[in-house]
Amino acid sequence: VQLQESGPGLVSTSQTLSLTCTVSGVSITSNYYWTWIRQSPGKGLEWIGYITDSGITDYSPSLRSRTTISRDTSKNQFSLQLNTVTPEDTAVYYCTRWSEYWGQGTQVTVSS
Question: How far apart are CA 13 and CA 71, in angstroms?
Fold first, then answer.
């Protein structure tokens, strides 16, 4: 199983952060939680949310109002959109098949 994040590494304040996770080796419609996690500089891991094999989503309460996780089963991908970003959203973003398999992570910097 492999996961690979992709998307812009630099986003401007108030814009939308968009990342895609491409999964290989297993279908995202199989029985797992496909999850986004981030780690800001000097902080621990923060759970952002997930989408299940059946398309059910759940989000961190602190991010729910700005977050959408979706999927494209034809491409075996799931995606993260985080709206109205600020520099506090600067982090390394990871996609995971919770919690066993992780992507390598992608740095996203929000410029002020």
Answer: 25
Is-contact 63 49, C-beta < 8 A? yes
User: Under a CB-based contact definition with an 8 Å cutoff, are residues 52 and 62 in contact?
Assistant: no
Question: How far apart, in Å, are the Cα atoms of 42 and each of 39, 45, 88, 101, 104?
Answer: 8, 10, 12, 23, 18
Is residue 24 over pLDDT 90? yes
CB count within 10 Å of CB 32 equals 20
DSSP H helical ranges for 49-110:
none
- Residue 75 has phi, psi (to 5 degrees) of -105, 0
Does residue 22 sit in helix, strand or coil? Answer: strand
Q: How far is Cα 82 from Cα 13, in angstroms, rounded to an integer?
A: 11
The pLDDT mean for the chain works out to 96
Percentage of the chain exceeding pLDDT 70: 100
